[in-house]
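Contributing new complexes? Match this layout with iron/sulfur cluster.
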Amino acid sequence: MEPFTTLKAAAIPFDQPNIDTDQIIPARFLGKARDAQVNALFHDVRYDPAGKPIPGFVMNQPGFAGARISVSERNFGCGSSRENAVTVMVDNGFRAFISPSFGDIFFNNCFQNGVLPIRLDAARVAEIRKALHEKPGSEISIDLPSQTVIGPDGKSDRFEIDSFRKDCLLKGVDEVNLTLGYEKDIAAFEAKQAKELSWL
Amino acid sequence: MTAPRTMFEKIWQRHVVVDRPDGYTLLYVDRHLLHDGSAGGYGKLREMGRKLRRPDRAFATPDHYTSTASGKVADIRDPGHRKLVEAIQTNTAESGVTLFYVGDPRQGIAHVVGPEQGVTQPGLTMVCGDSHTSTHGALGALAFGIGTSEVGHVMATQCLWQRKPKAMRISVDGTLGAHVTAKDVILAIIAKISAAGAVGHVIEYAGSAIRGLSVEGRLTVCNMSIEAGGRAGMIAPDDTTIAYLRNRPFGPKEAEWDKAVAFWRSLPTDDGAGFDREVSLNAADIVPMVTWGTSPEDALPITGRIPEPSSGLDAAKKDGIARALDYMGLTPGTLLEEVAVDRVFIGSCTNSRIEDLRAAAKVVDGRKTVVPSWVVAGSGLVKAQAEAEGLDKIFLAAGFEWREPGCSMCVGMNGDTGKPGERIASTSNRNFVGRQGQGVRTHLVSPAMAAAAAVTGRFADVRRLLA
Ligand code: SF4
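Output block (do not edit by hand):
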């Protein structure tokens, strides 16, 4: 997996809370190959049933093309476990998501794809979104080693991340390989459980 | 003396393979459910050049892409979808996994099949590449959804890296009123705590109203834990659980039964164990619920009115209500009971079990549908049981379509979708924008309330309809 260290890129604000993974990629695209899903990103909130762009949706507003960081209201990526919600964002250039909170499964799926989800205080996230609306195309700087985000207003915030996740991202660690290093422990666990829960 | 522990803590501790100093745990997975959307997991396994570590711990059934019109693989119109259903057959055959394939009466929605087959049991850890895996917690398992990469990880290692979630208890005490069901309970809970109310937590549902629910009702409650943001939801095993599990095909056999029951009895939360968060509701306050917006937290009592955007607490909330009402095509102040529906769907892993069909049939009996209405049983066995009880005749006589098991219109991946602008009363779990098809407006309700909508063409209060 590609390591993640720093990122300085344009950001896009999503003002609604609870942006679910059905919105990020509607179900009917899931059966397709990954490269056929690229244009499905936010499809049904971005286009009306006739295929015309919906002007109110932020991705259809000028100045936000090429954003690589999303800044959203609470509970981003809630709902379905579809990892396509992360991969379709990645395939559209995104590498980091900022929100006061995330759907748990989406959050975990990010790390599987070398993407950094950042939790920041809700008031600060609202401030960043406002700054982005005022100046579309503004950039945000993320530095994973020092765990800091510098907003479009130049203000710097520290964010928390588990050292396990941080390490895996920085080194681009493959989790399966890591786990296979514990093969003996897994086998010992299985032997013990076979005795205790013999009916399984 | 050991300190009092929650049920979640007990199950978690039992499954720790490795505890790292950085707070991450390698957690063992006892049961892995696979469905037709899990083909990507096999893809990951192939990429890694690895084999499935414990095929005996995995169980598979196609559900998302199956045809509910005929129940035949050949009738799946989209060739890509047909391939995904067929792939589950070749993949499980190669890897030695138990499969309940199309045509097998045991096939159905994974979260209906697991408990039905006794694959789901108290005290186990369970995962599936599907967010509604939380359903299985109803039998006292720690069960949660994962993404495709993690599915591949579990296939290769039978473990997952996890940071321990926090524990939350939601207690519902008292007696539920007539025609108030498990679905109304969980919608009331989500309306109270919000769609992000349990993020990072495993929920334990407790209290006399929860204990009073059947296993079917408990499955409905735990199913929607994810809609409250919960990592998982669980209910302590008791006599009801144990009676349900007896003689299930993949449960403990007679010789081991007593040993298993003794283990299950040790699981409930000890007196005095602490939770990170506690929430309580009074069962008597809960009435039949209907969602009006595009998040499950947008749930109101049937006696309520469509909210005014100005009722939002801040500008963002006001804007959110306005947006949801615009999508839903609703006018603020309208009585919910006056909202007309275009279509009714009874099904999904939330509400497609035998009890759900009985509750709906009771409302439908002797009445006629006035809008297109479907019943999609959760599994072939549920369907057969309903037919043995004559429920199919009641539904068919009323004008319902009686379809083959699968996820169907819950998500519409198989093409079972509504039309743009259609308003659907649905017993499923998500009223997200576009969930049942582009532009489709979903209202979440219980099976009895869905049936009431089918025969009246609007959101009728089932308590009055049956009075
Ligand atoms: S019935 Fe709906 S929620 Fe349940 S597994 Fe199928 S698609 Fe998911």
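Reviewers usually confirm one structural detail per submission. For this one: Chain B has two domains: 7-165+235-265, 292-465.
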